[in-house]
Each structure stands twice: as C-alpha cells, then as structure tokens.
Amino acid sequence: SIQRLKDLLVNQTFENENVKIDFTQLGKIEGEASANNRKGKLIFFYEWTISIDFTAAVIDSAMVYTGTIQIENLSDEFEANEIRTSSFIKDAGPETSFLFNLLNKEVLELIRSQIGKYIIDLKKEYSQGLILPTDSARNNTPSSAPSKSKTVVKNSDTLNKSGSE
C-alpha cells in the first residue's frame, strides 16, 4: 500500500498557464491498510497520515517556492472527494496567496483523484481470493428443512412424531 501511494502521489505535476507544481517526495507516510472478510462481506480499513513535498514555479517569476501538503483525513471513514489538505509554503513571496488558493482548490482535486485511484486499487487488489463461501453456500442445503427426528405439529389437536403416524 505504501508503494502504491508513492506511485500515485510522487512525481505528479499540476500545470496550468500560470504555474507548474511538482510533487517531489512523500515527506511522511504513516499508517496502515487492511481487509477483512466478515460473513462473506469484505470490510476495508485504512488510515494514513501523508505529507507531500512540492516545488512550485510561477510563470514570469524567478522565485521557486517549496512547501508541503498534508493530507489530514485519509481513512475508510471518508470518500476520496471528502479529503482535506493543509498547505504550507516555506518562503513567502509575491505569489504566496495565489499559490495557497491554487493548492486548496485545483491541486486538491488532483490529490483527491489520485487517492480515489488508491482506494479503488486497494479494494480490487485485496479482494481477490478473500471472499470465501459461507457455510450455508458450501453445504448447499436449505437450513429450514425439517429432519425426520423433529416433532411436527400437524394441527392444533394432534402432535405426532414424523414417520410414526
């Protein structure tokens, strides 16, 4: 899972007519992911704390900005489109507020898209071979069929043992 997150987040580039932002490395990645099979249903648990280091170059500016994007709530409790981030820029400059606005809107959408791919891949990869047939599916017999040794009530007046009428 850690490698898949690195593949999806590191070396990604956001670029438009005004700026180019490169995700250079994962500054921190902590957490875990697991899949469980409960009553024939797959349950996925994951919780990650991730920080992404970036560089940003604004067109017609000599300054190159560096900073970090912190993914705050990457867990199974949230969908990819609910992910929130906090952005930090190390050296302030004339384009700092422009960059913060971009990081909190358009770059956030790129991160959400990549995290969405991770969630899909996690469920696809870990679900293979994990769903096993339930006991009733293995036996392939209805559990409500009466056996011959059970007492069966035929009407309200008569109580007989099955097979000894």
Description:
- By secondary structure, this protein is α+β, with helices and mostly antiparallel strands.
- It has one domain (2-133): Activator of Hsp90 ATPase Aha1, N-terminal domain (Bactericidal permeability-increasing protein, domain 1, Super Roll).
- 27% of the residues lie in helices and 39% in strands.
- The protein has helices at 2-9, 96-104, 106-127, 135-139, and strands spanning 13-15, 19-38, 41-58, 64-75, 85-89, 151-153, 159-161.
- The strands form 2 sheets. The protein has a 5-stranded antiparallel beta sheet with strand order 1-2-3-4-5.
- Helix 1 (2-9) packs antiparallel against helix 3.
- Residues 143-165 have low confidence and may be disordered.
- It comes from Meloidogyne javanica.
Structure summary:
It comes from Meloidogyne javanica. With 165 residues, this protein is α+β, with helices and mostly antiparallel strands.
**How large, in whole angstroms, is the Cα Rg?**
28 Å
Assembly state (oligomeric) = single chain
Number of strands: 7
- Please state roughly what percent of the residues sit in beta strands, choosing from under 5%, 5-15%, 15-25%, 25-35%, 35-45% or over 45%: 35-45%
Instruction: Give me the number of helical elements.
Output: 4
The string of secondary-structure elements, in order, is HEEEEEHHHEE
Largest sheet: 5 strands, antiparallel
Span of the ends, CA to CA: 65 Å
Strand order of the largest sheet: 1-2-3-4-5
How many structural domains are formed by the residues?
1
Tell me, rounded to a whole number, the average pLDDT.
Answer: 81
CATH class: Alpha Beta
> Could you say what the CATH topology is called?
Bactericidal permeability-increasing protein, domain 1
Shape: elongated
Structural class by sheet pairing and helices: alpha+beta
Helix content: 25-40%
CATH superfamily: Activator of Hsp90 ATPase Aha1, N-terminal domain
Given as residue ranges, the uncertain stretches (5+ residues, pLDDT < 50) are 143-165
Q: Identify the CATH architecture.
A: Super Roll
Protein name: Activator of Hsp90 ATPase AHSA1-like N-terminal domain-containing protein
GO molecular function: ATPase activator activity; protein-folding chaperone binding
Organism: Meloidogyne javanica (Root-knot nematode worm)
GO biological process, one term: protein folding
